[in-house]
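To illustrate the input format used throughout this study, we show a single complete record. The first block contains the structure-token representation of the backbone; no residue identities are included at this stage. The design step must infer an amino acid for every position from geometry alone.
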């Protein structure tokens, strides 16, 4: 394996400013970081001082008035459902030492106020400025239609052996979450592992501009967020913003099995590390073996070296995620043995194919965090190889943001249920009928396949199957659906006595 290019230290060269109109809608926390002074705020944002001394020092930057602490600089974000400017007085009462705003505010004359055109853009500029000052920090950026949180966690587990690693908190991977994560970076960190999400064009380009990754990876390109991107080619173009936005000295981790990612990579001049099932991949896996509820085992190949690896992640798709993580780790100089050890330390993230026991001896495969067609297929494949239970129940919620392809995509999932020889299909949601019809068209019928109006009806039916002996100890239940379906509420009901 020969790498073209190398990973260099970060520089503070030009941060090109760009605008975005993306919305956001959740609470924002305060993150500890090295102190800021007003001069740095102005240098980072290009804002204008309305009041206050340039020598003023701020403890931290906060976007949540509820969590402001004395000495913080409060940045008033504006979104589709809220306006942080309405909480300026609350922030000041809690001890905010200064403000960043995009609307004029009446405040005491001694309070430093910085006026910017767009506070969301200013947040990204502040994160970019902070990151650019960490000259020895290596930044790794990962995106993809599915698996990016898992890959992020795997990379962090590999690099965390003897290094200080900052990683995206949870899945705060958008134009607010990623900058907030980066604002907590300090000189003690060796690596930053950042997950990048999007649902419309331009978002990843901006995230890439903020983070300036040294290693960039697109895990996969699949049917997801089609409502905002049109079709899978639109998804590829949007994900490709990571490769095209990465600097000339960056390393690209390329999924050689994905033709769209290969095409994107061919248009880029950076150094590349390939991963995948293809024998030509720089990083690949052979001799895959399911360990049941304990995960997967495989032989990891990096160039001419190989080592045996066990991971706690279930299913073949998590082996692919492991290869993506390994390729990124190679990009910052990790050797195969450290990579293998790190992958074995990985712990699956919350509600991503987590195995649990239910009352009565049934086994639960909790994959309720989110869903798109590819991750739904992966969950069904994983379910099909788990355990030796006589019956298996599948609970599926809608896959969201698929636009005009929603109906056909859900029909295909029903067909896949039959193909993977799943015993029961219990579906709920607006597209439940399409899922059920797909299964019926493929030969599933009778009590084995049902559509429900509510989650409560579905859970009651499942309990009736237990009472009738159709489900018994050792049998498996998969819970899977898009985040907006709140499938975790079904899990809460299933865990009740």
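Output of the design step:
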């Amino acid at each position: 394996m020969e790498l073209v290019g190398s990973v260099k230290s970060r520089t503070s060269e030009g941060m090109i400013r760009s605008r975005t109109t993306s919305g956001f809608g959740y609470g924002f926390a305060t993150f500890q970081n090295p102190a800021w002074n007003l001069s740095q705020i102005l240098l980072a944002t290009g804002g204008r001082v309305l009041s206050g001394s340039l020598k003023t020092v701020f403890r931290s930057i906060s976007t949540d008035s509820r969590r402001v602490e004395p000495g913080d600089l409060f940045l008033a974000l504006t979104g589709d459902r809220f306006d942080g400017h309405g909480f300026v007085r609350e922030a000041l009462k809690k001890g905010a030492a200064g403000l960043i705003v995009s609307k004029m505010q009446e405040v005491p004359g001694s309070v430093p106020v910085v006026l910017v055109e767009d506070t969301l853009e200013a947040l990204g500029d502040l994160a970019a400025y902070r990151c650019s000052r960490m000259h020895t920090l290596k930044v790794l950026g990962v995106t993809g239609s599915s698996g990016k949180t898992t890959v992020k966690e795997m990379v962090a587990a590999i690099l965390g052996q003897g290094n200080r690693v900052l990683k995206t908190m949870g899945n705060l991977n958008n134009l607010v979450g990623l900058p907030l994560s980066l604002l907590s970076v300090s000189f003690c960190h060796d690596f930053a592992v950042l997950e990048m999400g999007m649902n419309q064009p331009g978002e990843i380009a901006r995230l890439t501009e903020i983070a300036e990754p040294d290693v960039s990876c697109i895990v996969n390109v699949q049917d997801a967020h089609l409502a905002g991107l049109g079709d899978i080619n639109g998804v590829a173009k949007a994900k490709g913003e990571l490769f095209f936005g990465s600097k000339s000295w960056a390393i690209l981790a390329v999924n050689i099995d994905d033709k769209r990612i290969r095409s994107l990579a061919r248009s880029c001049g950076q150094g590349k590390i390939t991963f995948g099932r293809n024998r030509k991949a720089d990083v690949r896996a052979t001799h895959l073996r399911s360990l049941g509820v304990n995960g997967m085992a495989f032989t990891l190949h990096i160039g001419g070296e190989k080592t045996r690896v066990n991971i706690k992640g279930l299913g073949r798709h998590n082996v692919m995620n492991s290869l993506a993580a390994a390729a990124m780790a190679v990009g910052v100089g990790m050797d195969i043995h450290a990579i293998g050890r790190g992958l074995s330390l990985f712990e699956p993230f919350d509600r991503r194919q987590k195995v649990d026991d239910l009352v009565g001896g049934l086994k639960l495969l909790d994959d309720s965090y989110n869903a798109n067609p590819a991750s739904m297929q992966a969950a069904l494949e994983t379910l099909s190889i788990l355990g030796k239970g006589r019956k298996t129940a599948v609970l599926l919620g809608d896959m969201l943001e698929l636009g005009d392809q929603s109906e056909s995509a859900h029909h295909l999932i029903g067909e896949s249920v039959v193909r993977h020889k799943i015993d029961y299909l219990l579906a709920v949601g607006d597209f439940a009928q399409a899922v059920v019809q797909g299964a019926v068209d493929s030969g599933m019928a009778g009590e084995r396949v049902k559509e429900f109006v509510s989650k409560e009806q579905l859970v009651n039916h499942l309990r009736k199957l237990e009472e009738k002996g159709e489900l018994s100890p050792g049998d498996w239940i998969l819970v899977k659906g898009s985040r907006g379906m709140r499938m975790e509420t079904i899990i809460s009901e299933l865990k009740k006595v």
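Structural context for interpreting the output: The radius of gyration is 24 Å. The longest strand covers residues 283-290.
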